[in-house]
Amino acid sequence: MLRRLGRADRWAFDRVAAARLPGLEYVLPRLSRFADHGVLWFTTAGALALSRRARLRRAALRGSVGIAVASPMVNILGKQAFRRKRPVVDLVPPIRIRWKLPTSHAFPSGHSASAAAFATGVALEAPPALAVPVAATAAGVAFARVYTGAHYPGDVLAGLGIGALAGLGTRLVWPARPPVARVTRAEGESVQVTRDGRGLVAVVNPGSGAASEAARGILPGNAEMAVGLIRRELPAAEIVQLEPDQDLEKVFEDAAERAEVLAVVGGDGTVNAGARAALKHDLPLLVVPGGTFDHFARALGVETTTDAIAAYRSGRLGRVDVAYVAPANGVRPGGASGNGASSDGGAASEERHLFLNTASFGAYTELVDRRERLERRLGKWPALAVAAVRTLRHSEPVEVVVDGRRRRVWLAFVGNCVYGARGAAPNWRERLDDGRLDIRMIFTGRRVPRVRAVAAIMAGHLHVTPGYRAWRAGGLELVSKDGGLRLARDGEVSSLPAAIRFGKHAGALAVFCPADG
Predict the structure, then answer these.
(1) H or E stretch including 438?
(2) Could you report the per-residue pLDDT of 49-63, keeping only the tens digit for each?
(3) Per residue in 486-517, is it b (16+ CB within 10 Å) or e — as a string?
(4) Last residue of a domain, one of 172, 200, 235
(5) Is pTM, for the whole model, over 0.90?
């Protein structure tokens, strides 16, 4: 069987060597050389990383990780195990042989493995408009390795298979996320939209998305760039810029009173305030990403200001869940159904604190407090890294009663709808309208498993940590034994009474969604 396969492989190589493909005799050798040492793929990854789209950045990272896995599999294990000689290039026209004769073994093809690994990684994250050209380029590199006489077809096929498996294997430690979370289509609801944005009032938080105080005077923040595009594309829209000393809630309240559509430009904390005003005045909310993380906007499939403007002009509305936390003795009897979900008019009542993404307490709240203290001096990302190290070293468990059971909780996460990864604070969801809370906690005994927990958090596999529990529910009741609880909602920290309850308002908020979402 091996001899037959070898003869078929050499016959196929001879047929490719004898082929005449006008034009490609100049293109394919250059393409093959550009792929040497992964230069083609790492250049592509760098271009994607410079984009402002999270999906493209994830595609670049996943493709690069795929190459990092496939390359040693081929060059260290595969080639040394099989030690196949390179083809004899007598039949290959000299014009195609523009490469230096490799000294390594032929089987499997390293170029093909890298190409397939990168293309597979990109296909798992990027839209077809990018994934298809990358896959076509990878196929071109693979064919070029045979066309230029560097490999037999069997070498290339084996390399492609190894590369594809390496790319798919990245999902074992880093699950691929859906590009857009599904929402309930707002059937029968209409909203008046105009080409010039008349009737739209956009509240902008200029402080969102800037790396540091020093950078704000040099580089424009995400919110500033968004405002420029809105003014150009929607000139009739009213833009309200938040001042540092202004009351966020009052600004949104005033804007909502005169708006037909309320837009918010800022990070998740600012979007949270906008959602509260939109709920109170029964307005559709247009979310424009202008912060650092923009978890809610990206869940909707709105990654840029251009996406937001296109969603507004499409007039496509969806209904998403809104989670809340309220004093346990302040929840009105009719405020929640038996499973904790409701869509009553009390969605924006004063005693309820809303969140669109997550609420956390324990070590995460301490991390946010420390980051905010350091952020002005260090910038957001360095401050986050320093705060994480200090928090994980010094944080202590919180004594709480969870649904009637006394617990010592080191880290707690409550998500609005079910999240898709198994880490402590995953950042993607398949749906924004499932009516459930995603609850994850680390319960501890006398000692906190810090080293193992930190490693699990960094790897995104918190479920291997001792004391980790995760469940889904429509509601959750907590009572703090210390007389109060510090809670972070959508990245903003606040103090709450000792007894609180989490619940859901199912489909309460109308939001603009991309037409292709």
Answers:
(1) strand 437-443
(2) 888 777 888 899 999
(3) bbbbbbbbeebbbbbbbbbbbbbbbbbbbeeb
(4) 172
(5) no
